Amino acid sequence: xxxxxxxxxxxxxxxxxxxxxxxxxxxxxxxxxxxxxxxxxxxxxxxxxxxxxxxxxxxxxxxxxxxxxxxxxxxxxxxx
Length: 80
What we know:
- The chain is mostly helical.
- The chain is 78% helix and 0% strand.
- The chain has helices at 2-9, 16-22, 27-50, 57-79.
- The chain is elongated and about 50 Å long.
């Protein structure tokens, strides 16, 4: 979703901003919808993190490494 914002600035016609524009939303309204989607996903992410059960020291370390990997994928996409 954040890539849609970045690619829109480059004139890409195949992203969420462009889709909402084709559906009749203004540019600002399109950005607002995507911003709300991003905020909602972050909120869901942090709520899900709070619900991760403790399964034992070894498993918990593996789970944390996996979660960090998922977060790094998102950060990589933002920085790309």
